[in-house]
Every structure is written in C-alpha cells, then in structure tokens.
Amino acid sequence: MPAASASVRTDTGADAEATAILVRDGRIALIGDDAAVRTEAEAAGIAVRELEGAVVTPGLFDSHTHPHWAAEVTAGLDLGGLETVEQLRAALAAEHARLPEGAWLRGWNLEYEAFERTGMRGDLLADAAPGRPVALICYDLHTGLATAPALEAAGITGAREFDDASEIVVDADGTPTGELREPTAYNLLFDAAPKASHEAERDALRDMFRRLAAVGLTGGAIMDGKDRTVDLLAELEERGELDHRLTVHHWHAVGDTDEDVARTIAGKDRAGRLWRNDGIKLFSDGVIDTGTAWLHTVDACGDGRVPFWPSWDRYAEVVRAYHDAGMLIATHAVGDYAVSRVLDVYATLPEREGLPFHSIEHLEVLADEDVEQLRGFNAGRGDAGVTASMQPLHMQWRAADHSDNWAVRLGEGRDETGYRVRSVLDAGVRLTLGSDWPVAQYDPRLGMAWARGRHTPGDPHATVFEPEQRLSGEEALLAYTLWPALARGHEDRGVLAVGAVADLTVWERDPVETSPDELPELPIRLTVVDGRVVHEG
Question: How many CB atoms within 10 Å of residue 52?
Fold first, then answer.
C-alpha cells in the first residue's frame, strides 16, 4: 500500500522532506518522494493511494486501556454528566421501562458527586427500577453500586474480609449500603449478572477495536488481561478480524497464590502476529475519590494511608518473580506515597539485558520529593529507566473552584500536585499517555489536547490547570507513538523508517501544528495496522 503526496512525521529526525511511503508485507519498504515510491510501486504492480495534503505519523498507541472490559461495561446505560440523585433516578426509570422483564439494569460512568451528602446508597435509586437488579459502576472503575435485588442475586448479605483493600460497605447494623469498593468486592456483583454468548462477546470486542481505529488508534496496552481476553484475541486474529496491535498485561489480584503466578508466567510466550501476552498489571493503591489512594499524608477525610496490599513484602516478592521471568510489569499507583514505595521495590530489581524496564501507571499526584526520586531512579539508566504512564485527560473532572470530589478529598492546595507530566518529563523519565478507557474517552486527539492545553478544548473560558505542566505538540505525539514503543522494547515501532512495522495514522493536517482547541476535531483520513487499512475517514 503506497501512499503519495503527503507529509510525514517520522519520529526519527530523518526523511523530513519525504512525501510518500511504500508498504509491503506489513512493513515500510521505502520512504521518499512521490517519484521514487511510484516507480517502485509500479514495478511491483501495487496501486498508489493519493493522500494530497495529509500528514502521516506513526500509528497512535494507547498506553493504558481496557477494551475487553469496555465492550462489556459500555453495553449498559451511560450515566456520565448526571450529578444529582434525581437525574440518576430519571435515567434509570427510563431504562427500566425499556428493558424486558427479568433483565438486569446495567449502568456505567457513574459520578460520585450525586452522593456527596448521603454517601453512596443503592436504596436511593431502588424505586426507579422496582424489583429489578440494578448494577452500576463508577467512571473510574473502582466502585460499584447495587440495589437490593442485585445484592440478593449476588449473595451479598454483609461485610466480608478480602485479601486486598476491597470493601463491602455496610450500615451500623451490618446491612450493605450497595457501595462496593474496588474490583474484588464489586466483581461479586457483576459476576452474578447474565453473561453474553461467546459469539456476542467476541464480536463486541472486534467492534470495539474498530471504534478505536476510527479515531486513529493502531494499538494499545490492555491493562486488565485475563485468559479469556487472550483466547478472544487469538480467535479474532485467526478469523482475520483483529484490527489492533496489542500488549496484554494480565491482572494480578492481591490474593493470587504462587501457583497463580506460575501459571501466568507459563503462558507469557503465547503470542500472535498482532498481540503479545508478556505483561502483568498490579495495584499498589486505589483512587483519591474513595480515600483508597496511598498518600504521604492523610486526605481531608482522614484517609489515604493504607496500601492495597496487607503485606508490602508480598508485593515485592511477586514483582521479583515476574521480573525474573522476563515479564513487563505495570503497577497502578495513583497516590504520591504509592509511587515512592513502588520505586523502592523497582530499585531492588536486577538488570535484564535486552529487556525493557517497567512502568508506573497514573502517578496522579506527585510531591516534589517523588519527582526527585523519579529523577534519581532513572539517572544513568538510559532505556532501562522506569516509564511514567499518565492520563492528563482525567483532569476533565476537575472544577475551577476546587469543588470537585477529587480536589476536596485531597485538601486545600494539594490538587496543584496533580498530573505533573512536564515535571516527570523534565526529570528524565520516559512519558507515555493513554486514556484508561472506559474511565475516560478513548480518543487520543482529546488526550493529546488535554496534555497540551490542560483545559477543556474549544472552551475559551475554561480554566487552565497548572499551565506550567503543559506539553508541546511534538511531545504529546511522541508520548502516543515512539515513547510507548521504546517502553516495550520495540525498535521497529513508533517510527516511520524502512523495516518498521506499517502501523500508520494519517491526519487531515499536522497534529503537532494544530492547536489543542482544534485537535479533537482534526479528521483522521486513514488508520493502517500491519500495512492494512482498517479505517478510512
């Protein structure tokens, strides 16, 4: 598939004047001017695709995403933007009237603001769908909310002890309120809900990847991998229906045994042409909104000093096991103290020749001493340094007057330590960007716009949060292309160069020169994965 009459951003510093690319067998065979590529294409009998005025970049890669989970979760009712119990009740009542008898009412993107005065309670919503199991999940995927029929169907009758920091919240008399904190608790609820057929689940995942391709994404790091995910990827690829290049990070639960660890390691070499299975995802803490993030000092509600693991030594033990097995580790760390403690463990790991080092996911708040710890950790390590995988897009829930739940929880002034992408980059740490979809929108144009502008794109009156932390247009693009490839040890990805895999995003105009306010509306002309056009705008 040769493309001509375009401009290119190679991410290599070379071929800046090129206007055409020749792709053969899924790889870039030639980069040059129109004449040279046309001659080569004609000799090989390959038709030329004209891209007059377009800009070709390496394919965009989302460094933190949950497409399999999203395909299931987003089949329910989108509750985003509903900020009062009354609004929620009206939406649930409408959905209740639409659903057939006996079906569960599923909802996602639930925001915490509606329950600021009452706490999260399922009984506040019960009358909107009388007798029907209602199972909702918050936008950050860290809290579930259920009505009494759903709790009954899941066998949730009171508090339980969990291996991690998950919790079934109960009243003073031990009755569940409906709030289920963290995945181990709320999975009791969602595991009890009716499941889609195999074919429906497979096709929903296929269609999800096609949605992602439509906004220019050519791949991503799946951060909630399970055996089922891998089986579906293999099946889609065998059917010729996989349109994404993927790294699967299996989800390690705190209660996983040594046998579970060994089983995950044993399957790490299973792979396809477009996917690999050698990643692992662990948690060190939760999120700020529920008081489960691990912070240097307590939040405004007195929370924030409890890790996700009852034994931090056990975290270090399993990290070492996955490291020694050659796996790529990603650790969720939202709180500043969590970031510091994860770095302490990473510092004990021996070098692995020829293999990339690990990442920390989110780094949502960072004290100055944490930035310096990151700087010291990466000093002299080169490509063996830790990667910071961050999501400035999540700032969209912040309020200019600091009245949002996240800022209130942190306490006065501490929200200014949030999403310090510039500080991390200036500290010599490789930065990658992502969405955490379905936590936030999957569109990388929106993600780059927030990283560059740190305000709602297109709103001239929007507050700019910590303007000194803004990225340049080129840095934001690199954090979606070259830097994710380097973080995974791929020298043949994230660049436009002869021999590199032909994962390409073709834009109507240059995304680097387009303003952050205009970027989310910049058309995607083509998305190309492995030399194959998977989306044409």
Answer: 7
Q: What are phi and psi of 529, to 5 degrees?
A: -125, 125
Cα–Cα dist 34/18, whole Å: 8
Best CA proximity match to 74, nearest among 256, 196, 248: 196
Backbone CA torsion sign across 325, 328, 332, 333: positive
Res 2 pLDDT > 70: no
User: What's the mean per-residue pLDDT of the chain?
Assistant: 95
What digits encode the pLDDT tens for the residues 242-283? Answer: 999 999 999 999 999 999 999 999 999 999 999 999 999 999
Q: Directed axis angle between helix 227-238 and helix 198-213, to 10°? A: 70
Phi, psi (rounded to 5 degrees) for 397: -90, 0
pLDDT at 5: 73
What local confidence, expressed as pLDDT, does residue 319 receive? 98
- DSSP secondary structure code for residue 500 in this structure: S
Cα(254)–Cα(85) distance, integer angstroms: 34
Q: Between 336-346 and 312-324, two packed helices, what is the crossing angle to 10 degrees?
A: 50
Taking the mean position of all CA atoms in its chain, how far away is CA 402?
Answer: 25
Residue-wise DSSP of 384-414:
GS-EEEE-GGGGGG--TTS-SHHHHHH-TTG
The pLDDT of residue 380 is 87
Whole-number pLDDT of residue 109: 94
pLDDT at 16: 83
- Looking at residue 126, its amino acid is A
β-partners of residue 98 are: none
Amino acid at 482: L
- Contact of 76 with 107, CB cutoff 8 Å: yes
| Residue 67: closest CA among 271, 256, 286, 228 | 228
| Burial group, residue 241, by CB count within 10 angstroms (0-12, 13-18, 19+) | middle
Joined together, the tokens standing for residue 416 give: 């200014």
Query: Three-class SS of residue 201?
Result: helix
4 pLDDT band, cuts 50/70/90, is low
Task: Give how far Cα 81 sits from Cα of 70, 87, 113, 214, 451, Å.
Answer: 18, 9, 10, 24, 22
Give the position of tokens 């489960």.
Answer: 292
Residue percentage of the chain with pLDDT more than 70: 99
> Do the Cβ atoms of 29 and 475 come closer than 8 Å?
no
Q: Is the pLDDT of residue 154 over 90?
A: yes
Of 194, 160, 158, nearest to 174 by C-alpha is: 158
